[in-house]
Here is the input.
Amino acid sequence: MIDRRALLATAAAALSTSAVAGTAVRGQTAEPSLHALATQKGIIFGSALPAAPVLNRGTADADAWLAVIAAECGALVCENEMKWPALRPNATDFTFGRADAIVDYAAAHNMKMRGHTLLWHHPQWFPDWLTNHDFGSRPASEAERILTAHIRRVCAQYPQVVSWDVINETVDADTGELRETSLSKAMGQSVLDVAFHVAREAAPKAQLVYNDYMSWEAGHERHRAGVMRLLEGFRARGVPIDALGVQSHIGSGNSDDSVGFDTAQETEWRRFLDQAIGLDLKLAITEFDVHDKNLPADPAIRDREVAALGRRYLDLMLEYPQLDTVMAWGVSDRHTWLQGRWPRADGLPKRPNPYDADYRAKPLRQAMAEAFDAAAPRPPLV
Ligand code: G3I
Here is the structure.
């Protein structure tokens, strides 16, 4: 049994006392973790994590970061380490070291693993060797051989993964059409069906997910329609898919600053989710964070608005008993992909995560706790 209070106290020891006062105080109370609150309702809660803190244990920042992870999370997903560029230096070899480090850490802390991703079917995120691969005189079978070998080997390496993002982001957000890659050029769009079939065979107990970032924002209509066409096609062809992964990078500073509540967009979004569950799919929030790009500079105002939006969004999503997973895309503002993208006009660091850059719990953490607390119980995934 992991002592979460002791782990949060480690965060206090790892960083200067003033910086982590909030965390330490929270850790010394009987306040339940986000994982505990979610589990009570049959929901898996966890976070993305890169290998860096696991490999750098013993340094102040890594220890403080992992203290929050260990205290709050019941599941992990590798932020980048299971993607093709990380696992595949070439057409024959696999480099599992960095992903293994995260998976071993999860096992040691009794956490579940999500897998991201067996195929990010987007040319930008293919390794160069795969984009430039010579598929020979029988391109379809060579592409299928490479894809199949990859999925089988990766699933065999990580049998503990409870849910796989089999395909990530293959619908072009602007057109709603399927993206083309070297694999689809060689074997056609059957690449997507094959990936799911091989995943089912290689990971028969895992939930199989199509994961994407379509949202309710204006401008996402084609994206949503394209994703729904894809899901309907999967169902019509008997492709083994279990769930839709809704990434949930929400907030101010995305393509549309309006948040959609109480508008036609909210109605459209619910219709989209209803269509997905109408296909007998489960739902998962796979990459939750709340962008604060266009919110005022004052951190108190930003934190309050981020928390309010996060709460409302989670409440809406958790209305669906089919939603069995909520994964944060990082726990701390110190380490978020959003710091390096779309900078704020005032140049200030962003605050999109439940803990701040000094690992102090923020209002978003409280909002998440309250959303889990308010959610109806549901059958757990595992
Ligand atoms: O590790 C190298 C480092 O050696 C090199 O010096 C540095 C120079 O740019 O790059 C480092 O790799 C970066 C990697 O993150 C690790 O930090 C890559 O350039 C960068 O492209 C990569 O970004 C990741 C991105 O996916 C692309 O893989 C983000 O961390 C990660 O948060 C983001 O996650 C995606 C999900 O997979 C899918 N949904 C959207 C989400 C956010 O974009």
Remarks:
- The domain at 4-374 is CATH 3.20.20.80 (TIM Barrel).
- The first strand starts at residue 44 and ends at 49.
- Confidence is low (pLDDT under 50) at residues 16-29.
